[in-house]
Amino acid sequence: MGTGGPERAWVRGAQGGDASSLEALFRHHWPAAYRAAYLVVHDAGAAEDIAQEAFLAAVRNLDRFDRRRPFGPWLHRIVVNRAIDWARMRALRPESGGDALAGVAAAERADAGEGLLAAIRSLPPDHRAVIVLRYLLGYTPGEIARLLDLPRGTVNSRLRRALDALGEKLEDER
Amino acid sequence: MNERDLGRALREVELPRPDRERALAVVRAAFADRERVSWPRRHVRSLALTAAAAAVVAGALSPPGLAVLGSLRDAVGREGVKRASPALVALPASGRLLVQSPSGPWVVQADGSRRLLGAYGDSAWSPNGLFVAATRPNQLVALDPHGRVRWALARPQVRFPRWAGSRTNTQIAYLTGSRLHVVAGDGTHDVDLCGDPAAARVAPAWRPGPGWTLAYTTTRGRVYVLDAGRCSLLWRSAPFSEPRLLEWSADGRRLALVTADRLVVFTGKRPAVRNLRGATSIAFAPRGHQLAVVQGGRLLVFDSDRLTAPPRRIFSGAGRFGDVAWSPDGRWLLLSWPTADQLLFIRSTGVRRLLAYSNVTEQFGGRAFPRLRGWCC
To answer: What's the rounded Cα separation, in Å, for the pair B217 and B237?
Structure first.
């Protein structure tokens, strides 16, 4: 998932205090981090917060990061776990912020449209997460199991059930 | 759709566009903070001197003083209130002041006596004024009003302690870096609150009354209101640009947010928004929903239930004002005036009165004009 040489150089530079290296890491990883977060939480503001938070966590822990390892999985682990937590929390405790906020949320839903996004939104958050990790970010089931601290069998069953549910949803819409 | 098509669709499906540059700015700032930990202290000193010089220049370039307090108009000149006492000898109402100077926090008793609590960077009263929460760069400290340390907690980059609760159970919210933490009043059970998004450099605000409702602003400019007891999100606002101040009304029914160019009052329904550029200090009255606001060289009082109505202009003067605070009985407003090196007590009810005290910087350590941190109970 990393970019080999350049990424290692960016991590090394950032650990040495070079702001341009940190910026290079950010620009390289931001699109996937935001997209992964959005596909789990389906809220643009929350996805920005989660992606940003992941980078802030990376900054806080930069000194402890082993630069022989790729940066992407480290970041994606934070993003996806935070996104799952956020989506679960949102399901348990719907927000109430007044009419203005309801308007914002409605606009975001309209932007998201139907089809694939609606089908993914219909899945439980932890099923969305494995779909995102597998098919957006390209991790193997074994890697996903390590990223999410789950047994590999659980990852496989979630992937299977999520794919079945997505297939049914998308079929219904045709 | 096969699995390969699914991957392509996930990569290509159109999403709302994020504000990447804003996130990058936040990450850059956090990175710079990380680097600044070891920055030589001499730079801090030179920056402070530069800021002080800038303040003096700003004062010199400001228009002549103008009081709008009826008959007091002639009593105010370019250099401040003309008939000011040379020292703060007494408070006009009960309670004690907490004043933050570069030397540290000072407690001022009703008879004007002052005590420096020690070399701390920021401070706040406990709910009943029995203790003071104070900070060092990497430490949160609880002090009694004599300056004795009751406990200390080591955390990096501690800012904005805010203490709430009853006589038997209290909590302190504070920022460590960009994380919002809450610690019990006895210094135990320090937690990163709920893992919610990073906090902007704005003091969090406890909602007065029962429960543990805490408001803070995120780096993306949203106001988050949390139940800190259960770690649940009660609501969050839409994002606002450059949040600066956050304050609850005394009854907990209004929440005011000041941004670089707006005053926002959340009421539980659609927030009321008023354009207001450059507000630097706000304070709700101890009763009702009157909101005192410092804007440059003006002290205004808004009715936060009718935010679009014109505010009452309480006082104006040359240069810039500092902070505002209400007396515990709600009858006096305390206004700091760095340009004139004065503290002003302005009676807000009944017959208008103005009490002015000069030489404030010298009385609080002599290094720079102090900040007001509260007029407590």
So the answer is: 9
CB < 8 Å to A159, chain B: none
CATH 2.40.50.140 fits B65-376, yes or no: no
Q: How far apart are the first and last CA of chain B?
A: 68
Contact B270 A135 (CB under 8 A): no
Stretch(es) of chain B classified as CATH 2.130.10.10: 65-376
Domain ranges of chain A: 5-172
Contact B3 A112 (CB under 8 A): no
Per-residue pLDDT of A39-66, as tens digits, reads 999 988 888 888 988 898 888 888 888 8
Contact (Cβ atoms closer than 8 angstroms) between residue B298 and residue B280? no
Query: Please, what's the largest Cα pairwise distance for chain B?
Result: 84
What phi and psi, each to the nearest 5 degrees, are found at residue A53?
-60, -40
Chain A residues whose beta carbon lies within 8 Å of the beta carbon of residue B13: 116-117
Q: Which residues of B touch A99 (CB under 8 A)?
A: 269-270
pTM of the model: 0.63
pLDDT in tens, B339-360: 999 999 999 877 678 999 999 9
A106 touches chain B (CB under 8 A): no
User: A167 to chain B nearest CA, in Å?
Assistant: 7
Q: In this complex, is the C-beta atom of A39 within 8 Å of any C-beta atom belonging to chain B?
A: yes
Structure tokens at B309: 């109505």
Tell me which H or E stretch contains A125: helix A125-131
Helix (H) or strand (E) holding B158: strand B158-165
Q: What are phi and psi of B363, to 5 degrees?
A: -70, -20
Interface of B with A in 202-231 (CB under 8 A): 218-220, 222
Whether the CB of A110 is below 8 Å from some CB of chain B: the reply is no
How much is the CA Rg of chain B, to the nearest whole Å?
22
What residues are paired with B371 via a beta bridge?
B100
Q: How many CB atoms lie within 10 A of CB B252?
A: 14
User: ipTM of the predicted structure?
Assistant: 0.84
Contacts of A53 in chain B (CB under 8 A): 197-198
| Structural contact between residues B314 and B295, judged by C-beta atoms closer than 8 angstroms | no
Q: Residue A45 and residue B10: Cβ atoms within 8 Å?
A: no
Q: Rounded to the nearest 5°, which phi and psi values hold at B354?
A: -135, 125
Closest chain A C-alpha to B36 CA, distance in angstroms: 10
CA distance B142 to B230: 25
Rounded Cα gap, residues B196 and B212, in angstroms: 16
Any chain A CB within 8 A of the CB of B9?
A: yes
Give the CATH fold of the A5-172 domain. Answer: Butyryl-CoA Dehydrogenase, subunit A; domain 3 (1.20.140)
